[in-house]
Design goal:
binds uridine-5'-diphosphate; alpha/beta; 8 strands; binds magnesium ion; eight-stranded mixed beta sheet; 16% strand; 11 helices
Length: 336
């Protein structure tokens, strides 16, 4: 991936030409938010002096998000968008954006302005200094319920233990250099987890801290189910409901077995149980739960293989508008 030219740039530090940068923004049911986000982002991009374009993905919205994107495209250049045939999820939308991005770097940001576009000039500057990945790290998580915060922390801790990748306070607000985008696009898996996979890719990285802004319009699109699903995918690389169910049944049985176990113990200590019978019951209960949970876990990994093996497309595009704002093919050089 690393070519001689970029290595030379690293040492020569020339500054030549305007960089071509694609800003990737996913939208899902954000009809009230689209114009504000695009206008705010565009006005900041205009100050960078780079050749920038915005690429929006309508992730199968059921409201007038696509209508708003079409409206914006009619009045602005350097903007293009695709619409998914249904809701494929933010991860798929990011994949579409990175597959589309043809420039020297791409910036991925949320469509609700919680990733403040005011940091874009800083991201570009750090990239021009020679970093391949510039990533936003949350210094505060914005308005969030105690439950979501605890659940996120719990997930990150488990994920760190499982994969060795530390994601605490990490965000999807990132700038990726061309070679990182190419490396990403060469990964064949269907179930991606942007935050983790981009960390796994490596390359030289630089973080910057940002405060997550409060959402001014609409609500978070991540329900509990979506978050659980993303977490399971992140850890095992897949999701398949019937097999996941086995794990849940195992959990349910464990709870049931605990209740029954307590009852058996009470009967034993009150002298109402046949001797020796208690141990047998407890052991059977425990082994039964563990076997079911283990089977479920194996099922998760099997389902992951099954899912990937089907080789279905990551997303399906039903509409497309706009033209790339990137015109020149001349490759600008980074300085250091
Ligand atoms: N999003 C998406 N598809 C989805 C869910 C969310 O494209 O299925 C977009 C959403 O429109 C927003 C971004 O992803 O631009 C972040 O979503 P959200 O603000 O709901 O997530 P949170 O900030 O709560 O993590
Ligand atoms: Mg948000």
């Amino acid at each position: 991936m690393i070519d001689t030219e970029s290595e030379l740039c690293f040492f020569d530090r020339p500054k030549e030409g305007r960089a071509r940068i694609t800003v990737i923004i996913p939208f899902y049911n954000e009809e009230d938010q689209v114009l504000l986000t695009l206008d705010t982002t565009r006005s900041i991009l205009n100050t960078t002096g780079e050749q920038c374009e915005i690429f929006a993905i309508d992730d199968g919205s059921s409201d007038r998000t696509w209508h708003a994107l079409c409206e914006y495209e009619r009045q602005n250049s350097g903007f293009s968008a695709v619409r998914f045939s249904r809701n494929f999820g933010k991860e798929a939308a990011i994949c579409a954006g990175l597959a589309y991005a043809k420039g020297d770097a791409a910036i991925v940001m949320d469509g609700d302005l919680q990733h403040p576009p005011k940091y874009i000039p800083l991201m570009i500057r750090l990239w021009r200094e020679g970093y391949d990945v510039v990533e936003g790290v949350k210094s505060s998580r914005g308005r969030e319920s105690i439950f979501s915060r605890a659940a996120a922390n719990c997930f990150y801790r488990i994920f760190h233990k499982m994969s060795g990748i530390q994601l605490e306070n990490a965000s999807d607000f990132k700038l990726l250099d061309r070679k990182v985008i190419d490396a990403w696009n060469s990964c064949p898996e269907k179930e991606t987890f942007f935050r983790a996979l981009s960390a796994w890719l490596g390359f030289s990285r630089k973080t910057f801290e940002f405060d997550v802004e409060d959402r001014t319009r609409g609500r978070s699109k991540w329900g509990f189910k979506k978050l659980v699903r993303l977490s399971v995918n992140a850890i095992t690389g897949f999701s398949s409901r019937p097999l996941v169910l086995i794990t849940w049944i195992g959990m349910l049985f464990l709870v049931f077995f605990f209740a029954l176990g307590i009852q058996t113990l009470v009967r034993y200590f009150s002298g109402r149980a046949a001797s020796g019978f208690t141990t047998v019951i407890l052991l059977q209960l425990l082994i039964g739960s563990l076997v079911l949970i283990s089977l479920g876990l194996i099922g998760l990994y099997l389902a992951s293989l099954f899912h990937e093996e089907k080789k279905r497309p990551r997303y399906i595009v039903s509409d497309r508008i706009g033209r790339s704002g990137i015109t020149s093919d001349k490759k600008p050089k980074k300085m250091l």
